[in-house]
Amino acid sequence: KEAQKIVDLQVLDKVSGTDLDAEGGNERAERLPGRKATGKVTYYLASTTPPSADLTVLSGTVVSNTPTVTGGQFSVVTTQTKTLSVTQAAAFFVASRSRYELEVAAEATAAGTGYNLATGRYNRMTTTVSGFTGVENRTAFTGGEATEEDDEYRKRIRLRKIGRDIGTKNGLVRFILDKFDRQIDEAEVVL
Predict the structure, then answer these.
(1) Given the DSSP bridges, would you call strands 99-111 and 93-94 parallel, antiparallel or unpaired?
(2) Which of 10, 25, 34, 89 has the lowest CB atom count within 10 Å?
(3) Buried b (16+ CB within 10 A) or exposed e, 28-57
């Protein structure tokens, strides 16, 4: 039985992609999916004169970054509909920047770390919103993660194979890593 366990663990080093997913499925360990970055974008009207009509940003409106030589094109999409109301325009005026602003929640269009962009990087209205003169993210977008890589996944599958009993050292490590999904990378039990 121990010899078979060793063979099973060695096989993991030889498989990848969908074959590794199948091995994980045998152990009830699914590959961890990627996560989309989230944050807020601020639409603005660069004027001290209030708008003459309500300005609405619809859910699903796309904002992108300006690509750089070292970075690619990334987009976020608003996740809520918000309106800068004419009757309450004074509440949206930011005197220190001499403009009207409307902050709207948004998330990346796909999972991945590339979407975790710094303040000011999402600055292009891919979808034009009538009445606003610009857009920017005033805080960084965070939380974007790539789909679990084969090496990380292999490590979790291996731990599931050798750590089936919570009463063992490997079982406790597996329990901790499963419980704190992606919050910690490694655990060690000291007896």
Answers:
(1) antiparallel
(2) 10
(3) ebebbebbbbbbbbbbbbeeeeebeeebbb
Distance CA 125, CA 105 (A): 15
Q: Dump pLDDT digits (tens) for 127-172.
A: 999 999 999 999 999 999 999 998 888 888 877 776 555 555 556 6
The amino acid that residue 146 corresponds to is A
Query: To 5 degrees, how large is the angle CA 134–CA 110–CA 18?
Result: 170
Number of other residues whose CB lies within 10 A of the CB of residue 105: 14
**Whole-angstrom Cα distance, residue 26 to residue 137?**
43
Segment 127-137, tens digit of pLDDT? 999 999 999 99
Query: What secondary structure letter does DSSP report for 67?
Result: P
| Contacts (Cβ under 8 Å, ≥6 apart) of 7 | none
Beta-carbon contacts of residue 130 (< 8 Å; ≥ 6 apart): 55
Number of H helices, E strands in the chain: 4, 9
Query: CA 113 from chain center: how many Å?
Result: 7
* C-alpha span between 37 and 114 (Å, rounded): 9
Rg (CA), the chain: 24
